[in-house]
Structure formats: C-alpha cells, structure tokens
C-alpha cells in the first residue's frame, strides 16, 4: 500500500462481505480511515438513507462493493429483486456521491455485464454489442447501467467515477451455502462432503464444456485499490488473469485439491451459463500496472484450507 491512502477517509459498502472485507483489510493496513456502514442502519435502496450516510461519514472516496447476487441458481430464482436491489443501490449511491461532493466513486462492476456471445478474449469495447447471458442478465444489466451513469455524470457534471470489472472471484470468506454460492465454493463443499461421506460420485451442472476465468479474491482487492488510486475516467477496466479454464478441468482440479477420488457425473439438464469467459486484461497492465499473482492451484488450496478451518 502506498502513502496515498494514509489518513484518507474511505467509505466501503459491502465491507463485511467477500471482496469488501479484503479491501477493508488493505485500506486499514495502508492507514486509511475506513467507514463501514451497515445495511440495518442505512438502506442503500433509499435516497434519504444514502444522503444521511454520506453526511455522517463525509468520505473523500466511496468504494461500492455491496451487491445482491449469487450463483446461477440464485440469479435464476430472484431476477426481479436482483435487478431492482442492485440498480437502486448503484444509482442512488453514485448520484448521492456526486451531490455530496465525494471526490471519487469506485463502482465494482462485473464480467456479467458482457454480452453472452462476446468475442473471446472479451474487450471492454464490446460491452454494448449484445445482451448478457440470460441466467444472470438482471445482474449484468444493473452493472451496465451503473457504468453508463458514471459516463453520463462525467460528461454533464465532470464527476469522477471508475469501474474495475472483475471476472468470477473465488477464495476465503466466500459464500459456501448452496443457495448463494458460486461455482468454486459450491464445488469445494460438494467434493469435501462427498469425500467425508465416502460417496463414489458427485454431480456437476451442465456439460463441462463451458469455460471460466477465475480470479483470486485478494488479487481483485489489490486491483480495485490500484484503480481507485491511479485512475480517474469512467472507462471500464477488465480485472482478471487472462487465462481460460474449461469447467470440466476446473471440477477435476477442485476434486483433486479436496482429495475426492470418485466419479464426476454431469447433469446436462442444468445450464452451463455463459459459453466462454476470458478477458483481455491489457488495459489493467497498461493503465494500472497491475497483474494477477496467485495461480488457480494455489488459490484453490488456500480456499479449501480456509473452508476446512472455518466450517
């Protein structure tokens, strides 16, 4: 952490969550004065609560990492509330920061904003060239609207907002409950449970042919703070490894790390989700001087160790 953060007043939404908690750890290590508003005190879907929160904490910067989201199952079951909750939070918070004179708004976006059939590797210029993957379109569209709002506020008001756009995250402190978990924690829990029960197989969703790019959560926290520190335009920036992994290979790797040696059966009645996910990360290298450090194998090992120690 550079001296940029020393004594800087930073408000983090979602600071008790998965990504947000690692952002908070780094800010505190860098000497920042961190505000962690709680949802029971401030409902970010209400303008009056947003305005009151910004008045109470008077931050110089807001890092918006709060979301209503989860894995494919969660997104398919709750698209209405996912869209409404995220759109209200994003819109009201960015607008409130502008009106309150907050120096910079850092809106953590998502790879889900990309079109389902975007060319791979996905470039930031392609975000508006199609409709997102239907299974998480509500979430992806809410992120696209946030980034467009930032662009519009820059044009009309000169307001400074930035949008790091991570791929699928994994790591310690993730959600491991079945309803909300993403692919990696869901697989880890499934493999550990099967191993301990002596099961001879596990069932994985889809065909295994889809691909994913996975980013270790602590790498993402570093990238978000780097973006906040050195960037000042509303152009989205891909945050990832630039490496594509077939889901079949991912499942086999997770099983090996978890010590599960049984059969992997594929339930093809379940969706694959987006066919391919892999980012062009050249902007992050050139504009931020940032690259991911943790390999998939090392990140999975750390995640499994954390899960086993905290169950």
Describe the structure.
- With 311 residues, the chain is of the alpha/beta class.
- The protein has a domain at 7-167 and 216-240: Rossmann fold (3-Layer(aba) Sandwich).
- It is 43% helix and 15% strand.
- It contains 10 helices and 12 strands.
- It has helices at 18-29, 47-57, 72-77, 79-100, 137-157, 183-197, 217-230, 247-258, 282-288, 296-310; strands at residues 9-13, 33-35, 61-64, 104-107, 161-166, 168-170, 201-205, 211-212, 214-216, 236-239, 245-246, 263-267.
- The strands form 4 sheets. Strands 2-1-3-4-5-10 form a 6-stranded parallel beta sheet, sandwiched between helices. Strands 6-9 form a two-stranded parallel ribbon.
- Helix 4 (79-100) runs parallel beside helix 5 and helix 6 (183-197) crosses helix 8.
- The radius of gyration is 19 Å and the shape is globular.
- It starts with 8 loop residues before the first strand and ends with a helix.
- The model has no long low-confidence stretch (mean pLDDT 95).
CATH topology of the domain at 7-167 and 216-240: Rossmann fold
Roughly how many Å is the radius of gyration? 19 Å
Helix content: 40-55%
- What class do helices, strands and sheet pairing give? alpha/beta
Q: Could you state the order of secondary-structure elements as H and E?
A: EHEHEHHEHEEHEEEHEEHEHH
Q: Beta-strand level of the residues, as a percent range?
A: 5-15%
């Amino acid at each position: 952490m550079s001296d940029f953060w020393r004594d800087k007043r930073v408000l983090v939404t979602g600071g008790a969550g998965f990504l947000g908690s690692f952002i908070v750890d780094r800010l505190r290590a860098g000497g920042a004065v961190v505000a962690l508003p709680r949802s029971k005190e401030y409902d970010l879907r209400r303008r009056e609560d947003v305005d009151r929160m910004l008045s109470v904490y008077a931050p110089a910067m807001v890092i918006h990492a709060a979301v209503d989201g989860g894995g494919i199952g969660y997104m398919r079951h709750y698209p209405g509330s996912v869209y409404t909750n995220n759109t209200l939070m994003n819109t009201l918070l960015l607008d409130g920061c502008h009106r309150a004179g907050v120096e910079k708004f850092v809106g953590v976006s998502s790879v889900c904003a990309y079109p389902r059939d975007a060319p791979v590797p996905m470039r930031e210029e392609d975000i508006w060239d199609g409709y997102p993957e239907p299974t998480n379109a509500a979430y992806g569209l809410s992120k696209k609207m946030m980034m467009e709002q930032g662009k519009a506020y820059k044009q009309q008001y000169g307001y400074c907002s930035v949008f790091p756009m991570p791929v699928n995250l994994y790591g310690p402190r993730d959600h491991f409950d079945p309803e909300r978990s993403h692919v990696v924690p869901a697989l880890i829990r499934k493999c550990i449970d099967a191993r301990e029960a002596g099961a001879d197989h596990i069932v994985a969703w889809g065909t295994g042919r889809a691909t994913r790019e996975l980013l270790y959560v602590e790498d993402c926290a570093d990238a978000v703070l780097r973006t906040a520190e050195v960037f000042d335009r509303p152009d989205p920036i891909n945050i990832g490894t630039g490496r594509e992994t077939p889901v079949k290979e991912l499942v086999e790797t997770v099983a090996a790390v978890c010590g599960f040696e049984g059969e992997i059966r594929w339930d093809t009645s379940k969706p694959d989700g987006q066919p391919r996910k892999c980012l062009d990360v050249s902007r992050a290298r050139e504009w931020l001087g940032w690259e991911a450090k943790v390999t998939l194998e090392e990140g999975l090992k750390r995640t499994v160790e954390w899960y086993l120690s905290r169950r």
